[in-house]
Amino acid sequence: MERTDIKKLFNKSFQIALPLLFGASILIWTYRDFDFSRVGSVLRGRVDYGWMLFSLFFGVLSHLLRGWRWKLALAPLGEHPKGSDCVYAILVSYAANLVLPRVGEVSRCGILAKYDGVSFSKSLGTVVTERMIDTLCILLITLATLFLQSGVFADFFRVTGTDKAFFMQLFTSANFYITTICILAVLVLLVWLVFNLSVFSRVKGLLQGIWQGCISLRNMDSPWMYLFYTIGIWTCYFFHFYLTFYCFSFTEHLGWLAGMVMFVAGSIAVVVPTPNGAGPWHFAVITMMVMYGIGKEEAGIFALIVHGIQTFLLILLGIYGMAALPLSHKRLSVGQKTEKQ
Predict the structure, then answer these.
(1) Does the pTM exceed 0.90?
(2) CA-to-CA distance for 279 and 26, rounded, in angstroms?
(3) Which of 11, 40, 55, 286 could make a disulfide contact with 243, Cβ separation 3.0–4.6 Å?
(4) Using CA atoms, how far apart are residues 145 and 126, in angstroms rounded to an integer?
(5) CA–CA separation, 335 vs 273, rounded Å?
């Protein structure tokens, strides 16, 4: 093996191992002194799997809507992939993110380039635009949640007797350092993305294609349909999370506003580059649940089970997407040959 190949292998291994180690470290700290035997007992008899399946329905629907929205964004660029391929590419991309965070955004563009001949640079541009819109959505949801639940936060600080000493103790709190490390990890991810984008831009015409993809919404025939899909995606995301409250006796009393707070905290946490937000997501959701009066152990059980089942769903959907893509195009090619005969 040549030296350059060894270097590439080392870099790939490092990119995969670092997010895993980072997420695992936060998980280990979050679940220190945790009684894992209770998770098994809850799974065997204290989970309402009917509500869990209902929540998973919204998870699947969100991927369908995202795929259809992507197809809509590509149309003004003269790119018309099969709607099913857009959905399959989305499914594969989310599974790919479990291996290497944020690689899915690139992989799904490669899938459409391979199976539908879609310009990689243009599709990447629509993904960049998509991520900017998602960031705007979570910002608006966060602001609305802070406004609606401002009284809860004020009561929390009043009841717990929070005063100046709280801010003095903040810098000695492990929670503070975990949050700081997560923010730094996001910044490192952004630097890595910018660097890789600069590498991509050296390819002739790629940067121009990305720009065309970014401004594709300006020439869209159905902007209201794009908006409808966007609202639908984030509504599905919320119900995908919120309905899991009804799966457990210790969370079923929590209202939708509490769900909004935890949904926002979890959505921000998954930006941290770990597989499906593992570690930061658990930390954020458990912290918010404790604030709403849920016991720390119950909150830990909720986070482990919900995140585990939702991650398993992503794996299954990713496998389905990878299997369906070649099969659907094989059937198409066979059908075309039959017509010619």
Answers:
(1) no
(2) 5
(3) 55
(4) 28
(5) 43
